[in-house]
Specification:
mainly alpha; transmembrane helix; 262 residues; 9 helices
Length: 262
């Protein structure tokens, strides 16, 4: 896999080509207004991309400082997600253990089959926890991907923005924006989940079977709120910020963030 600096080198080479093409179009004797406008835009974009490539290290430092300001880092993210995965796995195993005990009791005392419906909420609870564990694994994988690849992703975004005729300007700005926002904001996700998770106060003491299973079933809305609604809402906020930042980086809101005039 190419390193971020190798990609940046390729971006600068392509950016130089784009600048050359832009100057040729801008200085062309062909009296076509659209051709000269395209040349002007390519020159401006090439200068802007060259600036982005040269402040790459500064940009990475700013991202680290933003995380410090928010009081989060990737170590905390991995620790919190890991604890949530452990809590969920323990709850699943304890639920299965409790279900096995109940089934054995029913079998030993020859309980009629219609009473087996009493443990249906427990089965639904275990199934829902299994889905939550899959989601937690997805959050972990997403974090691992962003944390390990953010430098390369930003470099690829700069490379795309450097392509001639601004062919990759939009998608390049989007890639840079999404990487920046999720690199800074994603480590906050497990903290939001942990603060509202009902698994921290889980009780698996077997008392009244009907009451116990109903208590499990009643926790499903709280689990949905903590592990699905809050993450989806937060992800939506991050995506919204990403689109705003994309418009800023790509120069779609007003002028380019770094003024370039010819």
């Amino acid at each position: 896999m190419y390193s971020s600096f190798e990609i940046l080198y390729l971006a600068i080479v392509i950016d130089s080509l784009s600048y050359t093409i832009g100057t040729l179009l801008y200085g062309s004797p062909i009296p076509v207004r659209g051709l000269k406008e395209m040349g002007h835009k390519m020159i401006v974009n090439s200068i802007y991309v060259a600036v982005l490539a040269n402040i790459f290290g500064l940009l990475l430092s700013i991202l680290s400082q933003l995380q410090k300001i928010l009081g989060v880092n990737w170590s905390i993210f991995y620790l919190d997600i890991g604890l949530l995965q452990i809590q969920t796995s323990v709850a699943i195993n304890m639920g299965k253990f409790l279900y096995g005990i109940i089934v054995l009791i029913f079998y030993y005392f020859k309980v009629p089959s219609q009473f087996y419906s009493l443990v249906t909420p427990l089965l639904q609870y275990i199934s829902f926890l299994t889905d939550i564990l899959i989601l937690l694994n997805f959050y972990m994988d997403l974090g691992l991907f962003i944390h390990s690849s953010y430098m390369v992703l930003i470099a690829i975004g700069i490379l795309l923005m450097a392509l001639p005729f601004q062919m990759g300007k939009g998608i390049g700005a989007m890639l840079i924006a999404f990487t920046i926002v999720f690199y800074v904001g994603l480590p906050l996700l497990p903290i939001l989940i942990s603060n509202s998770s009902p698994l921290q106060n889980q009780n698996f003491v077997l008392q009244d079977i009907a009451l116990q299973t109903e208590e499990f079933y009643a926790q499903i809305p709280a689990l949905f709120y903590s592990f699905i609604l809050i993450p989806l809402t937060y992800m939506g906020v991050l995506v919204g910020f990403s689109f705003i930042l994309q418009s800023f980086i790509g120069g779609y809101i007003g002028k380019l963030p770094i003024p370039v005039e010819i």
